[in-house]
Design goal:
The chain has 821 residues and is α/β, with parallel strands linked by helices. Helices cover 68% and strands 9% of the residues.
C-alpha cells in the first residue's frame, strides 16, 4: 500500500515537471472575460431598478458561459436568480437558484452554496412555504458558520426571525433578531442593525410589551436614524404605526403609516406601498371610517396580488371582509373572508405548524444521518480502493522501479530549483521590505525637516518683527534725547528752553525705561518667573494715583478727551490683598491702549467687588473698537491692529496687552474683552481677591538684646534694613564685605544672626558663608539675593539656613528671623 502511495506521488511530481515545460498561457482562461463577468455581477448587485438588475445578470450569464469557468457561471446564475427574486418572479428564481446550487457543488464553492441556500429560503418564504424556507436558511447557517461569514450569518438570523414572526412565534423570533443585531453591530453595519432592532420592537408590540417596544423603536430612530435609507425609514415608520395602533392612538398611527406610504411611492416599492395601504385601511377600520378604509385596502390587495405578495393579499382580504360587513355588502365580505381562509388553510395547516415546531430537532437528526451516511460511504470507498490496490500493485511496483532513477534526478533538480526560488523570493521580500522602510524613514525625516524649517522661519519672522519694533520704539525716544541734549549744548538755547527741554528729556527717558521694563517683564512672563509680592492695596488710592499721572500728560490733553474714575466702595472698604506693582501695571497698560486708540469721547476706569470676593476692574473707552474675529489676537505678543477705515500708524511694541494678560493670569485671574468696531472697547480684569480682616491685629516683633550682623555693600539697602530692624529693638552691626563678615563671626557672641548679601565685592557671600561655617556652625545665616532660583542650591550647600529675595518683604524677613532668634 505504501509503495502505491509513493508511486502516486512520483507520478504527480512527474506530471508537474512536464507541465512546467509548456507555456502557462495554454492552460489559462482569458482574464478580460472573467473581469467583465465579475464587473457585470457587481453592477447587478448594486442596481436599484429590478429591470436593470436582470439585464446586467443576463449579460453576465452569457459571458460566463464563454469563459468555461464553473465558478463564474455559478456566480452569474446566482445573480440571475437574485434579480428574479427582486422582480418577485419567485418560481423562476427558484429554478435558476437550484441550477446555481448544482454549479457551486461542482465547483466546490462552499461560500456560493451558503448564499444560494439563503436566497432560496427567501424565495420560499415569499411563497409562504415556511417549512422549506426554514430548512434552506438553516442549511445556509451551517455553511456560513463553518466559513465564519459573519455578514451572511446576520442576514440568515434576521430572515429566520421574520419567518417565525410570520408564524406568530414571537419569543423565537426575538432570539433570532437579537443574534442578527449583535452580528450587525460588531460589523458596524448600522443600517441592518436598525432593521433588526425595528423587528424586535414589532415582536414586542405583538407580545403586548408596548412600553419596551416604544423604548426600542424611538431610541433606535434617535441614535441610528442617520444610517437609514429611504426604504428602511418607510419600514421603520410602519413599525411605529403598528405600535401606536396597539396603544390605541390611531391618529398617530395614521401619521406614521402615511409617511411610510409617501416614501414607498417615491421609491416605487410595491411591497412598501401594499403594506402601508393595508396599515392605513386597518386604522380607518378601527376608527369606523369604512368607506375610506375600503379604498386603501383595495389598493393594498391590488398591488400585492399583482406582485404575488400572497401574505399581504390575505391580510387585505381579512380587513376587507370586516369592512364590507360593516358597510352591509355581505356577499363581498363572504368572498374576501373565503379567500383569506383558503390562504390560511393552505399556509397555516395543523400539519405545517407541527412541522415548524419539530423542525429544529428534525434538522439535527438529518444532520446526524448525513454524517452516518458519509461515514458509511467512506468505509465502502476505502474497501473498494483496497481491492483495486491489490490488483494494480504489481504494475505500480514495476513502473516505479523503471522511473525511479529518472525521476530521482528530476526530483533532485526540482527541489534545488524550488529551494533557490524560495531563497530568491525571500531575498526579494527582504529587499522590498527594506526599501519600503527606507522610503518611509526618508519621508518621515523629510516631514520632520520641513516642520523644523517652518518653525525656524516662524522664529525668524517673529525675531525680525520684534527687532524691527524694538529698534523703532527705542530709536524714537533715543533720537529725541540725543537731539535735545545736543541743542542744550548750543549757545542759542535759553534758560527757559533748557527747562522745557529738560522735562522733555525726562519724559523721553521715562518712555525708554518703560520700553526696557516691558521687554524684561515679558521675558519673565514667558519663562514663568513672575514673583508676586502681596500686600494691602487701597483700590481708591491706586486709581487716584493713576488718574493724576495720566490727567497731567499733555499729549492726551490735546485730544480733548474726558477721563473719569468710578469708585464703587469707600476708602475703608476698598482695601484688598494683591500685588500692588502688578495690579498697577495692568491698569497702566489698559489705559495706554485706551488713550492710544481713542480720538474722541473719552475713557472711564472703575471697579466693583461682588459677594464672592471677585474684583471686576474695567477700563472703558469710546475708541475705534475691535472686530470679533481678531479680539483673541490682541493679547498675542507683537500684534498690532490696523483699522482699514482709518489707517493711522500707532507706535508701541505690541506687548502691552500681552503683559497685562500675563500679570492677570499670574494673579489668578484673566482679562475679558467686549468690543465692536466704532463703538469702543471695554477691558475687564476679573480677579479673585482676599479682603483683609480689619479686626485682626498686626503681629509685633521684639528682638531686644539680639545682635544682627548685616553684611551689605549697598548703602541704601543697608539703611532700609537698619530702619526695619531698629523698630524691633535689635542691635544692628554693619560690615560691607565678606572678609569683615568672616572676622566678625570669629568673635564670640559678636552676633546672634547674620543677614548675608550674596553679591559682595572681593569675596562673594557664598564664599563668606563657607568660611563662617568652618568657624561657627551654630549661628543662623539668612542669605539675600535678587533671584529666587539661581543661587538657592549654592546657598544651602554653603551652609545658609534660609534666604530671602529682593525686594525684601518686611513681614517675610521678620517672620523668618523670628524662627531663628
Amino acid at each position: 500500500m505504501q509503495s502505491i502511495q509513493f508511486a502516486h506521488r512520483v507520478l504527480k511530481l512527474f506530471a508537474i515537471v512536464l507541465l512546467l515545460q509548456f507555456p502557462f498561457s495554454v492552460f489559462s482562461q482569458p482574464k478580460s472575460d472573467s473581469i467583465a463577468v465579475k464587473a457585470l455581477i457587481d453592477s447587478a448587485a448594486k442596481a436599484k431598478s429590478p429591470q436593470v438588475r436582470i439585464a446586467f445578470a443576463r449579460e453576465a450569464y452569457h459571458k460566463a458561459i464563454a469563459t468555461n469557468s464553473k465558478r463564474l457561471l455559478a456566480d452569474a446564475t446566482h445573480a440571475m436568480g437574485n434579480a428574479l427574486f427582486r422582480l418577485n418572479s419567485y418560481d423562476t428564481a427558484i429554478d435558476t437558484l437550484q441550477r446555481a446550487l448544482v454549479l457551486y457543488n461542482i465547483a466546490g464553492d462552499i461560500a456560493g452554496r451558503a448564499k444560494t441556500y439563503y436566497t432560496l429560503g427567501s424565495c420560499y418564504f415569499r411563497k409562504s412555504n415556511y417549512v422549506k424556507a426554514i430548512q434552506l436558511i438553516e442549511e445556509s447557517v451551517k455553511l456560513a458558520s463553518s466559513l465564519n461569514d459573519s455578514a451572511l450569518l446576520a442576514n440568515c438570523y434576521n430572515s429566520l426571525g421574520i419567518v417565525y414572526y410570520t408564524l406568530e412565534n414571537y419569543p423565537t423570533s426575538i432570539d433570532f433578531f437579537e443574534k442578527a443585531a449583535n452580528h450587525y453591530e460588531k460589523a458596524h453595519s448600522y443600517k441592518n442593525y436598525v432593521r433588526a432592532k425595528g423587528n424586535i420592537g414589532l415582536c414586542l408590540v405583538k407580545m403586548g410589551e408596548k412600553d419596551s417596544a416604544k423604548k426600542i423603536l424611538f431610541s433606535t430612530l434617535g441614535n441610528y436614524g442617520k444610517y437609514m435609507d429611504s426604504l428602511m425609514l418607510a419600514s421603520f415608520f410602519d413599525n411605529i404605526g403598528v405600535l401606536y395602533e396597539a396603544l390605541g392612538k390611531i391618529d398617530s398611527a395614521l401619521h406614521y403609516h402615511t409617511h411610510s406610504l409617501n416614501i414607498s411611492k417615491k421609491l416605487k416599492s410595491s411591497r412598501g406601498i401594499a403594506l402601508s395601504n393595508l396599515a392605513i385601511g386597518r386604522c380607518y377600520n378601527g376608527q369606523g371610517k369604512y368607506i375610506v378604509a375600503r379604498t386603501y385596502l383595495l389598493t393594498a390587495k391590488q398591488v400585492s396580488k399583482t406582485n404575488e405578495l400572497e401574505e399581504i393579499t390575505a391580510q387585505a382580504n381579512r380587513q376587507l371582509a370586516t369592512c364590507y360587513e360593516e358597510l352591509g355588502d355581505f356577499r363581498s365580505s363572504q368572498r374576501c373572508l373565503k379567500e383569506f381562509l383558503e390562504y390560511n388553510d393552505k399556509t397555516f395547516t395543523k400539519k405545517m405548524v407541527n412541522q415548524v415546531a419539530q423542525l429544529h430537532s428534525m434538522l439535527q437528526i438529518e444532520k446526524q444521518e448525513k454524517e452516518n451516511q458519509q461515514l458509511q460511504l467512506q468505509l465502502e470507498l476505502k474497501s473498494l480502493n483496497e481491492q483495486k490496490d491489490q490488483k494494480i500493485i504489481t504494475l505500480y511496483t514495476i513502473f516505479s522501479i523503471l522511473l525511479l532513477l529518472t525521476l530521482s534526478v528530476i526530483v533532485y533538480f526540482a527541489i534545488q530549483l524550488s529551494h533557490k526560488k524560495k531563497l530568491l523570493e525571500h531575498t526579494n521580500s527582504q529587499l522590498f521590505k527594506f526599501n519600503n522602510e527606507l522610503d518611509s524613514l526618508v519621508k518621515h525625516r523629510t516631514r520632520e525637516l520641513n516642520d523644523a524649517i517652518d518653525k525656524i522661519r516662524e522664529l525668524e519672522r517673529i525675531k525680525s518683527a520684534f527687532m524691527a519694533n524694538i529698534s523703532h520704539e527705542i530709536r524714537t525716544p533715543l533720537n529725541g534725547i540725543l537731539g535735545l541734549t545736543y541743542y542744550l549744548s548750543t549757545p542759542e538755547c535759553t534758560a527757559e528752553e533748557r527747562s522745557q527741554i529738560g522735562e522733555q528729556v525726562k519724559h523721553l527717558g521715562s518712555k525708554l525705561a518703560r520700553i526696557v521694563d516691558d521687554i524684561l517683564e515679558l521675558s519673565k512672563i514667558e519663562t514663568n518667573q513672575v514673583n508676586l509680592l502681596l500686600s494691602e492695596v487701597n483700590l481708591n488710592q491706586l486709581l487716584d494715583d493713576v488718574y493724576k499721572e495720566y490727567d497731567s500728560i499733555a499729549e492726551y490733553d490735546d485730544k480733548n478727551l474726558f477721563f473719569r474714575v468710578n469708585k464703587s466702595l469707600p476708602n475703608d472698604r476698598a482695601i484688598v490683598i494683591c500685588d500692588y506693582y502688578r495690579l498697577r501695571s495692568i491698569i497702566i497698560h489698559l489705559l495706554e491702549n485706551a488713550f492710544k486708540f481713542t480720538h474722541q469721547g473719552g475713557i472711564e476706569m472703575g471697579y466693583s467687588i461682588n459677594e464672592n470676593s471677585v474684583l471686576h476692574l474695567y477700563v472703558k473707552d469710546t475708541g475705534v473698537g475691535i472686530p470679533n474675529e481678531i479680539q483673541k489676537k490682541v493679547f498675542e505678543r507683537f500684534y498690532k491692529h490696523l483699522d482699514d477705515s482709518n489707517p493711522i500708524f500707532y507706535d508701541g511694541l505690541g506687548i502691552g496687552l500681552t503683559i497685562a494678560m500675563g500679570y492677570a493670569i499670574a494673579l489668578g485671574g484673566s482679562i475679558k474683552l467686549q468690543s465692536s468696531p466704532g463703538q469702543g472697547s471695554t477691558f475687564t480684569l476679573v480677579l479673585p481677591i482676599t479682603v483683609p480682616n480689619s479686626n485682626a491685629n498686626k503681629e509685633t516683633f521684639c528682638f531686644t538684646g539680639k545682635r544682627i550682623l548685616v553684611v551689605e555693600d549697598d548703602l541704601i539697602n543697608y539703611q532700609y534694613l537698619h530702619a526695619l530692624l531698629s523698630k524691633t529693638g535689635a542691635t544692628v552691626i554693619h560690615v560691607k564685605n565678606g572678609e569683615d563678615a568672616i572676622e566678625a563671626a570669629t568673635i564670640e557672641r559678636a552676633a546672634d544672626l547674620i543677614l548675608l548679601d550674596i553679591q559682595l565685592p572681593f569675596k562673594s557671600g557664598i564664599e563668606a558663608a563657607i568660611e563662617i561655617r568652618k568657624i561657627n556652625k551654630q549661628i543662623p545665616i539668612i542669605a539675600q539675593t535678587a533671584t529666587d532660583s539661581e543661587y538657592v542650591s549654592a546657598c544651602r550647600e554653603a551652609g545658609c539656613n534660609a534666604f530671602v529675595t529682593k525686594p525684601i518683604d518686611p513681614d517675610e524677613l521678620l517672620n523668618l528671623m523670628k524662627r531663628f532668634l
